[in-house]
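User: Modeling request: complex.
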Amino acid sequence: MIFNLTELWGKAMFDYIIVGGGSAGGVLANRLSKDSKNKVCLIEAGSADSSILVSTPGAFGAHMFVNKFNWKFNSQPDAGTESRGHFCPRGKGLGGSSSINAMVYTRGHSSDYDKWEALGNPGWGFKDALRLFKKSEDNENGADEYHGAGGLLSVSNVDKNYYKLEDIFIKAAQEAGVPLRNEFNNNELEGIGNYQFTIKNGQRAGVRKCFIEPALKRENLTVITDAHATKILIENKKAVGIQYQQHGTFKEVHASQEVIVSGGAFNSPQLLMLSGIGDKDELAKFDIDCVFDLKGVGKNLQEHPAISVVFSSLKTDGYSLALGSLAKRTKEMIQFGLGKRGPLRHSVTRVGGYIKSSDDVEVPDIQIHYVPIMFDDHGRNFDCLMQHGFTAELNVCRPKSVGHVTLRNANPNSDPLINLNLLDDPYDVDVLVKGVKKLREIYSMPAYSKHTGEEIFPGKEYQTDEEIAQAVRAKAEHVYHPIGTCKMGNDDMAVVDASLKVIGIESLRVADASVMPSLISANTNAPTIMIGEKAAEMILADA
Ligand SMILES: Cc1cc2nc3c(=O)[nH]c(=O)nc-3n(C[C@H](O)[C@H](O)[C@H](O)COP(=O)(O)OP(=O)(O)OC[C@H]3O[C@@H](n4cnc5c(N)ncnc54)[C@H](O)[C@@H]3O)c2cc1C
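Assistant: Request completed. Predicted assembly structure:
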């Protein structure tokens, strides 16, 4: 589908072309087209359709099964996880991954951004990042030192916990000495409580809703969907346009100012490599002419490795698809359908927070997402969903394992080859082992006395550190936060500089999660939106 006609300008010539309408690309489309003088084109591989599955916060789990809004990548086997590959959902369509994510709104710790700056990226420290977080934000608690109000991105509180098991987890954490915390964005992370969410009035407040839809009526913004960018058109080391494939036909659009690649951490490096930007030897394997030898493209892939600590519940007051609970589930659907009420108006993972793996750690190094569900295999294990239980998924905030993305072949329609390399570094395993022990302690507190049943994962037979480490390697997954594959910096492996300009190529930037040089202790949507905001400011300043 095309909103506004590309042919409007005869040769389909724009000032700016953005590839990918996700968390960063959607922000760019809005901000760059705000000035009616800028002719902006957004190219998105997915469809223009929205769906109740996107807008309904509680429908999050459905995206693990439904293809329409999900690329559904699978990574290569990792030695660190007993040669298992991993399911890698990524959003497809306007809004990108912000249309299928769990809507948790976190930003991490100031030291995460100060590290980016120290890695050779002036202007990316926490002070600068905070200004941009506040610029985007419309927080229902209003503005303060750490929050903005009146911005485009709706951020809201949990109205209440809908299942007893959620309050029990918060209480048990306190019994185990973990403080209560309901604010994770004021630079104090440690504690367990309720997160804030990108949700408004029981509807997902993704980038599609908050940034793209308000800009669609602008005549200077052309949005082309079902359009898979296959190549960046480059002349004399200058990006001049994009070739894309739509309904089986190859087409081109041209840019007089800049091309901005915002395809996400897996697709952005793939598009660069398909266009001849990447490691020369790597490109030669696929007979791709090297336009610029940039060794770092696709390297430095980082992801939050995670392990779920799962117990069965002796009670039936959590969430389950067991036959005996179907009346409750039906009631919840009716409540939502009639008045946007009930648990479906919210994300499944309302409760969570941060803990330290040991007292020596300065900034918490484990993040927790808790669900009153028996959860396994990205929610695809129906045997688990049919039972009653509870799950704390804990992840390593600043992991040390590093993977890479490369090409599978020279066909742009092939999935990129993803090597997460999860748990390659023993540090990551060690943090998860300590986390499992801490979670067992929380689950053993009096608050759980009427609920705690059997330990399902890792399983009570895993007791020593070595045994728990073995269980971690056998079951570890990740929490959908890939970054770093077009990292910014000034070293040999940098792909973009601190202005997000691709090194060696004129008029080409990358702006999405792939430019983060190191993983932050947060869910990555808000930080990626912040990157979109900063990219837009830098592009407009250059113009
Ligand atoms: C299941 C899931 C749950 C998550 N939960 C949370 C959460 O609760 N909180 C949080 O903060 N973060 C969460 N995240 C992470 C967060 O959503 C992402 O980090 C963020 O959206 C990434 O933004 P991006 O702009 O880098 O890429 P994306 O938002 O993925 O956007 C990339 C866009 O580019 C398009 N594209 C790719 N290649 C091409 C091409 N060749 N041509 C045209 N278009 C192309 C894609 O279709 C997509 O629309 C989650 C992610 C997932 C997948």
